[in-house]
Amino acid sequence: MEKTTGMKPLSEPRANALTAAFLLLLLLWRVLLVHWIELPLFFDEAHYLHWSLDLDWGYFSKPPMVALMIWLSTHLFGMEEWAVKLSSPVLYTATALLIWHMGHQWFSPKAGRWAAVLFASMPLIGFNSLFVTTDAPLLFFWALTILLFQRALAQPRKTGRWLLAGLAGGLGLLSKYSMILLPASLLLWLLLEKDRRQALLRPGFWLAVATAFLVFLPNLWWNWQNDFISFQHTAEISQLDRQWFHPQRFVEFLLGQVVVVGPLTAWMGMVAWRNRQKPATSAQQPLSLAGWLAWPTWILLATLALLSRANLNWAAPATIGFALLAGAGWACLKRPARWVVMSVLLNLSLLTLFYHWPVVLRALHIESTAKIDPYHRIRGWEALGQQARALLRQYPDYLLTADNRKVMALLGYYALPGNNHLAYYNAHGTIRNQYAISHDLLAIHRRSGQDRFLLFSKQAQPEGLHARFKRVQPLGSIVSRPYPDMTLKLYVFALEGVREAPP
């Protein structure tokens, strides 16, 4: 990051060193933060952790990359929360480095540095860095695919470059299915750029597409074996089969995108796009490509928000193109450094408030409650896990069982970290999550003869217990109260004698 006008400009090596130091410090802050605020796992993270204990080519709702990430980090560093989450901030930092390289090559060294710093400090990236999700590998392989694709276009006769671009694209598809938006955006860009259309007539581009398909093929095979359950789930969460036209959600999505990239970054990105052809420069085509990496995704998801629903993070890949646009835009201003610093400081101020909210409340002598703590959805489960572990010691022959995905994931992690020997009680027999596929109680009974289960449920009277088990013994409940206005309670049942066919 450069100093403001009026002071001696930094040399390139020093500016690069300061940028690298900023990215490294940001990474360390996010990794250590999990310890500082004692951040538990979100239930999706605990669910993904159980996937990592049984690696496969696919899962109910996602491709396998997130499970592989967690498998690697936990094998290296153990089952603590920070180790489960570690790959997320690391991959976002690696994505920032790729953006830095692209901005340097496409526009200027300053534009590259600023694009990387703006991306790393975006509120959405800062928020996502605390949780291990599919977005982290998606954005990394999205950026890597763009970089390799541009290199292949520069030397289209080099087959190896197209193969590498296809490999990166395939790994992106193994990270999240929305990766398909990138080749669609690149195809549109090639069709609409007159000087680039000839790339579609050469074998290299289609070799990259074929390579990506071959890398992705094992997940397609897994889905074929499981009735394409992942694609059914993806279609279901879009809610396109329900009532159409939601203008309020459309406005919320658009305003939300301004917040998640940062207000000043959003403004400069739009200015750079508007001025991309005046005057015509050697950066005209890269600016156009950067725009095509953002706008199609945003337009598609804004339309989805209008018709049904779209979460803010679904548009996360667009932040890469927008960071490049903003970095190039700042480089065109007379006094860019002060604007970049203002944008980064604004973003970091928002993140600091979010990151250290519990500390802020303590400093102000305000009692933390569920209503004012943004982390309330993940508090209290460690205490429940300790109580569940004590019960399991009293019933050593019983298998930890739950009838709810959230309970199964979090209680499974905090009661038996690193243990995947769990059972899922599926009263209706419908496939609504991965546990119903891989941990079905009846399937476990048939396979191993396991006949005793300790069920933890949010329901005081879970459906169908007496019809499906010969003996049902209520054991009371376990309770956690993380806030004065919030209580977590699970009812416990000792189950024996599985009935294959309920009477």
The helix fraction, in percent, is 55-70%
Radius of gyration using CA atoms only: 25 Å
Q: What is the mean predicted local confidence, pLDDT?
A: 90
What structural category do the secondary elements indicate?
alpha/beta
- As for the number of domains, it is 2
Termini separation comes to 72 Å
The SSE string, one letter per element, is: HHHHHHHHHHHHHHHHHHHHEHEHHEHEE
Strand-residue proportion:
5-15%
Number of strands: 5
Would you summarize the structure shown here?
The protein is built from 24 helices and 5 strands.
Structure commentary:
A hairpin with a 2-residue loop joins strand 4 (469-483) and strand 5. Mean pLDDT is 90; it is low at 1-7. With 503 residues, the chain is an alpha/beta fold. Strands 2-1-3-5-4 form a 5-stranded mixed beta sheet, sandwiched between helices. The chain is built from 24 helices and 5 strands.
